[in-house]
Amino acid sequence: MKYSAISANHNEMEGSTTGNESLKYFQIPNSHVETFWIVEEVLDGDSLKVKQEFTQERREIRLYGLDAPEVHLSRKMREDEAKSRIPASLLLQYGLMSLDYVLNVCPPGTRITLITELDNRTDFWLRDLAYVILPNGECLNELLISNGFAKASQSYYCSILPEYQQLNFLAKQNKAGIYLFTEVF
């Protein structure tokens, strides 16, 4: 019996990456990829608690390039209320919509991949910043913005920010997610 090696031709290799939108995240210069993380808790629309599957290390993750409404009355909620001129009680409802969306696409127990830009690792509160890649290859950060459950934000810079701003513009135009109820949040 002879072994005959099978190798993919150029078209097959090209086809396997075509349409894989998350590939761009793995190509961000000076970034670090970490696999085998599991979502332990969804805190709100832009923050997660995660655990490394093998070492049991735990982290709080803040998603790059976006901001979702708060789910608790807080100092930030008051700031958002003043900026948007939307009552805190309504902002809270928008925050719960964002939280519900994340719970649907990335519930606790979901295995994820974290990608961090090494030049911009933490936020003001020293939470780890990351792009979250879901098991189906989609990026949670991108899904939240394109579906209107978070807005693009430059509070925590990321190299994909211009694309996120474009996705945010389209979500607003299409009245997706929270934009169905308001122009700003």
From TrEMBL:
It holds the Pfam family SNase. InterPro entries: SNase_OB-fold_sf (IPR035437), Staphylococal_nuclease_OB-fold (IPR016071). Residues 33-181 form the TNase-like domain. SMART domains: SNc. It comes from the Bacteria. SUPFAM superfamilies: Staphylococcal nuclease. This is TNase-like domain-containing protein. It comes from Chryseobacterium lacus.
